[in-house]
Amino acid sequence: MKNKLLVAVFALMTFTAMVYAYSWGVANIWYFNASYYLDDWSKAGKIEHADEYQKAWAAISKSVAYDPSHPHYLHIKGRILQWGINENLVDAAQISEVKALFIASTQARSAWPIPWIDLAHLNASQEGMSDETWQYIHQALAVGPYEQAVNQGVLNIMMAYWYQVTPRQTSLFFEQFAIAAKQPKMLESVLKFSQTVGRKSLICPQLRFNQQYETQRKSHVYKKYCLSK
Q1: What tens digit of pLDDT does each residue of 84-107 get?
Q2: pLDDT, tens digit, 9 for 90 and up, residues 49-89
Q3: Which of 225, 228, 229 lies closest to 202 in space, CA to CA?
Q4: Which ranges in the chain belong to alpha helices (H)?
Q5: What are the backbone angles phi and psi of residue 104, rounded to the nearest 5°?
Q6: CA–CA distance from 75 to each of 59, 108, 145, 162 (Å)?
Q7: Which residues make Cβ contacts (< 8 Å) with residue 176, sequence separation at least 6?
Q8: Does the global pTM surpass 0.90?
Q9: CA angle at residue 213 from 208 to 217, to 5 degrees?
């Protein structure tokens, strides 16, 4: 009798493991399907066809349905929904759902910095440099201080809302810029964004007059963005 019970328990455990493995595998397939579209939109800067959004949304929804607590799936679902809102394919009122998905992702894996900086971007677009926005920024920096997306994200947010940044908070900007300046591609991205939001006056004088940026002053990026009219 005891042996039969052990066999039954083992069989149940094996079945449960197989079901979980199947769900995990299917969820992962749908996730990569959805992220493929997201990568394409990021490269193009827009959603080329509305039906792409529907396919991506269906894929990530299935992924989350199979594995509802996976932080990556929750985060990507939030990003896809945000793209839909930005491209006027989804009701703007659903922005609260985007935030909820990002928060759920951080709760599932608090040490992952990307959802924190996405939360900072999202909150800044709604509230500017509020205490909550700063909270997300500092959390992103705490868990991913050398993550490129965090470094550049902090700089972009602060440049976009510079008029709300206090003198005491400006030191963080220049600390993050010192990190970005060491990476040519990131420096170019920062300079390009500074031009977009009219903040070249924050960046170019630093490169021009600060001795630590002597190497950067010799680059084509500096000449392109800071010396050209």
Answers
A1: 999 999 999 999 999 999 999 999
A2: 999 999 999 999 999 999 998 999 999 999 999 999 999 99
A3: 225
A4: 2-44, 50-66, 71-86, 95-108, 113-127, 131-143, 148-160, 170-180, 184-196, 200-209, 214-217, 220-222
A5: -60, -35
A6: 14, 10, 20, 27
A7: 151, 154, 155, 158
A8: no
A9: 55
